[in-house]
Amino acid sequence: MTARPLVDEVLALTPQATPRRLKLVAGALIALGGVGVGAGFGWRDGAAGWVALLTATSLVIGLGVVGTLLSAIFELTHARWGRAYRRLAEASIALAPIGLLGLLVLLVGGSAYLPWVHEHPDVGGKAIWLTRGFWDARVLIALLVADGLALAFLYHALRRDFCVEGVAKRWPGWPGRWLGRNIVDREVERARCEARLQPLAVALCLGFGVCFSLLGFDLIMALDPEWISTLFGAWYFIGHLFAGLAALGIIGVVSRRAFKLERFLSVERQADLATLLFAFCLLNTDFFWSQLLTIWYGNLPDETHYVIERGIDARLPWPTLSWIAIAGFFAIPFVALLFRRVKRSDLLLTLLASIVVASIFLVRFIEIAPPLLHLGAGATLTEALVPLLAAALTLAGMLGAGAWLYGALLTAVPLLPVGDPIFAAEFGRPEVTP
C-alpha cells in the first residue's frame, strides 16, 4: 500500500499542462528539422536527404523503445536507485510514432536510395534476403514487435499506478477511463499488474535484442551488400542503450529543476546513473573493438574494405569523422566519468551525456552515408558537412516532435511511479531532518 502523503506529493508535482518553454523549444526544433530535410533533398541529387532521414530514423526508433527497456531492466534487477527515473524513461515511448512515421517514409521511397535494388547481390542467399516486399515486411514487423512489447509493459506499469487510490480521480478524461477501467479491487488488480510486469520485462529485453539486431542488419548493414558482420546487430542495439541512458541523464537534470524533484532525483541518484553510463561506455566500446579486431585479424578483402573506407583511407572525409566519434563515445566519457565531480555536476554530466548522444548519432551517419553519397577519392570534409548538417537538423526535428508528445504524456500520468512498491518503500516515509 502506497503511503497517502507520497501519492499527494507526486500528484502535486505532476504538471497539469505541457510547460510553455518545452513547447517553444519543440516548435523551434521541428522548424529546424524542416530546414534539414529541405537542405538534404535539395543537395545534388537528393541523396543527402535519404541519408539524413535514415540516420535520424535509425536512432529515433531505438530511443522510442529503450526508455521503456531501461524501466524493464530496473524492474528485473529490483534496482532501488533507478526507481524515480522510471517514468521519465518510460515516457520516451513518445518517440515511437515519430520513428514509425520516418520508417514508413523510408519504406515508400526505398527504391530511390537502397543500393541493392538496382544492383542486386547474388551471394550468400542475399538475392532472396534483399528483396523488396520481404525486406519491407521484415523491417516493419521487427519495429512493430519491439514497439508492441514496450507498450504492453508500459500499459501494465501505468495501470499499476492507476490502481492507487486517488490517482484515477486526478485524470477523469481518457487516461483515467482507459488505464483505470474495470478495476473492482485495487489491491488485487495491482498485484495482477505486478505479476505480469516481470515476464513482460523479460520478453521486452529479449525482443529488443532480436528485433533491433534485425533492424541493424536490414537498415544499415544491407546498404553495403557485399559486407557482413555477425556482431553488427549487437553493436547497433547496445549503441541505442548507451544513447538512451545518456539521454535519461539529461532529462533527469532538466526534470529535477523544472518539476522540483530534488527529493527523488538526488545528486546521489544522479551519480548512480552516471556510473551505469560509465559501464555502458565500456560495453559499447567492447562491441566496437570486438567487431574491429575480428575484421583486422581475418584480413579478408570482403570485410576490410568497410573499415578502410571509414577509418583509414585519408583520401576520404570519413576517417576524420570516425576518430571524432570514437573520442565521443569512448575517450571523453571514459576519462570524464572517472571523476566524482563530473557525475555529481548537473552542467558537466549534461554536457558529457550530450557528447555521447551526438557521437552515437555520428556513428550511425558514418555507417550510412558512404554507400549512399558515393564521395570519391579526394573528396574533402566540407563535402560531407552538408549531408551531416542535414542529418543533424532532421534528427533535431524528430526529437522536437517527440519532445512535444513527451511533455503531453507526462501531464497525463503520475510523474513518478507511485504504484511501484519499491519506490513507495523508499520514498513513502517522510525525510528525517536534522
Which features would summarize this protein structure in a list?
434 residues
Quick overview of this protein structure:
The chain has 434 residues and is an all-alpha fold.
Between the first and last Cα atoms, what is the distance in angstroms?
28 Å
Number of strands: 0
Low-confidence parts, pLDDT < 50 over ≥5 residues?
430-434
Q: Give the tally of structural domains.
A: 1
Average pLDDT rating: 91
Structural class based on helices, strands and sheet pairing: mainly alpha
* Percent range for β-strand residues: under 5%
The percentage helix is over 70%
Largest sheet: none
What does this molecule look like?
By secondary structure, the chain is mainly α. It has one domain. Helix 15 (318-336) packs antiparallel against helix 17. The protein has helices at residues 4-13, 20-42, 47-77, 86-90, 96-108, 110-113, 126-129, 134-162, 167-170, 174-179, 186-220, 232-258, 267-298, 301-312, 318-336, 340-344, 346-373, 381-410, 421-427. It has 19 helices and no strands. The radius of gyration is 22 Å and the shape is globular. It is 75% helix and 0% strand. Mean pLDDT is 91; it is low at 430-434.
Protein topology:
Layout: H1 4-13, H2 20-42, H3 47-77, H4 86-90, H5 96-108, H6 110-113, H7 126-129, H8 134-162, H9 167-170, H10 174-179, H11 186-220, H12 232-258, H13 267-298, H14 301-312, H15 318-336, H16 340-344, H17 346-373, H18 381-410, H19 421-427
